[in-house]
Design goal:
By secondary structure, the protein is mainly β. About 10% of the residues lie in helices and about 35% in strands. The structure holds copper (II) ion. It holds the Pfam family Cupredoxin_1.
């Protein structure tokens, strides 16, 4: 039985379609909960490390109208990492910066991610260990995470 999760990584277009579908589902629930208080709803593929056609490992994180990265922890293998952050928020702007406390520096980051935007960065990791990262806008509200490079 074919398993959709093993299909090639969807491009930006289908990713957007997936998000739209997720939003439709959300609205369809008809709950009275304020959006900011709702539990984060992740799109398909978010948080799953996959290997792209070019051999690079890929991971997508999601941010929304709260102060969390979803997921806030993930593990990659040494090598090139292509990290995408999708901000499905309707109002909130986020960013992502590695704190520099990891076993090696990661200069790449995402400076500004407005509502509905997504951005992809690519960087190399070689040493095992934990790399804390932060949304600098909301660090004091606890919007942090950790990328682990497996040994
Ligand atoms: Cu933020």
């Amino acid at each position: 039985m074919p398993h959709s999760a093993r299909r090639p990584v969807p491009g930006p277009r289908s990713k957007a379609a997936g998000l739209a579908a997720a939003l439709v589902l959300l609205t369809g629930c008809g709950g009275a909960e304020p959006e900011a208080a709702a539990a984060p709803t992740t799109s398909a593929g978010v948080g799953v490390v996959t290997t792209a056609a070019d051999g690079v490992q890929e991971i997508t994180l999601q941010t929304q109208d709260d102060y969390t990265f979803v997921p806030d922890t993930f593990t990659v293998a040494p090598g090139t990492v292509r990290l995408t952050v999708v901000n499905v928020a309707e109002q909130m702007t986020h960013n992502l910066e590695f704190d520099g406390d990891g076993p090696e520096p990661i200069e790449e980051g995402i400076d500004f991610l407005g509502p509905g935007q997504e951005e992809t960065i690519e960087f190399e990791v070689t040493a095992a260990g934990d790399h804390p990262f932060t949304c600098t806008f909301h660090a004091q509200l606890g919007q942090t995470g950790v990328m682990t490079v497996a040994g």
